[in-house]
Sequence to fold (401 residues):
Amino acid sequence: MKTSLLILMLLSVAFTTFAQDSALTDNQYNNSADNLLGKDSKLLVGGYGEVHFNQPLSGESYNNGKLDVHRIVMLLGYNFNEKTQFITEIEYEHVKEVYVEQAFLQYKLNNAISFRGGLMLVPMGIINEYHEPTTFNGVERPLIDNTIAPTTWREIGFGITGTILPVSLKYQAYLMNGFNGYDGSGKLNGAKGLRSGRQKGAESYISSPNFAGKVEYYGIRGLNLGVSAYLGKTQSTLYDGIDKDDDAAIAVADSSVVGIAMLGLDARYAIKGLQLRGQLYYANLSNTKEYNQFTAGTSGTLNDLGSAMLGYYAEVAYNVFRSVETELQLLPFIRYEVLNTHSSVENNIVKNLAYDKTAITTGLTLALTKGAVVKTDIQFVKNAATDKYAKTFNAGVGVMF
Fold:
């Protein structure tokens, strides 16, 4: 029933064919790197950042809140000429952690074909590419973009991207290294899904290439539809140096690998002050029985990676200042979300009801101007093992320039 309701919403958004003025800001459907690409200047500078406050709410206990400079990202790029560009993002998380979020070289042959190579975002869903705080409602990113498509998900690879103007399509297709599934211990499980497998370009290794691709349609004003696909296998250090004729060693290495086939569907639509957004992920994981047994190691306790993960949400927001002559936008919103990393499991483990979560997030987004927002929300999260909702009050500020 839950899946049917979301699919109906996505279809209703997808087939709404009338066009009206969009209440979205100009960069709503662009990420920070998109904003740099195509600029005329040689040196390109941009950035985004967000500061958060999270306060658990409970009638039974006192709980400290958390204050965090969650991330500050500086974007630097360089136009060598009108066809050749380099883009990089340097990210500081929680004040003390430093990452490279993107670092890729692009050569534009024409509007329909550009070649890219380097550290790139995996084109899956909405948030993994459009994760700047001015581009989504709510202080924290949706749950499904933390576990199934583990934002910010980036890997090293190469491929092509472009825009097919006659049919209003944008596409991306890359070959990339996959998740680190095993490097002496198993990295994937039911609790965190695929998140701990990200290699992030930090001395990454590859035992087999993976494919990532996305097609987006934007032919109706205010409407953006996306279909994403990710296919391949997790990586394993056990393949390194083994003899191709050593069947026993190959069989062991094969047990440390999980096959991944992931599909993403997303829709965004804005008409006058109304904004609709929906997203669905389905990930089918193969060889999980063997992987769970192998990664149990000497402990004898089976790992609990599921054989399928499902996540989706539907969100509605409205700009109440739409009819007022002001630069401000005030958007009350509500988002209903479902995440289940044990949508299916192999017969050697039992479904963990705690991994079947429902979240309701409602709050306000105040856009002070293009690129600057103040946010607040309350999030209610429960799992199938309990009837109680865990409640959290969140507030934050965000910028993108």
About this structure: Confidence is low (pLDDT under 50) at residues 3-28. The chain has one domain: 2-42+73-359. The longest helix spans residues 2-14.
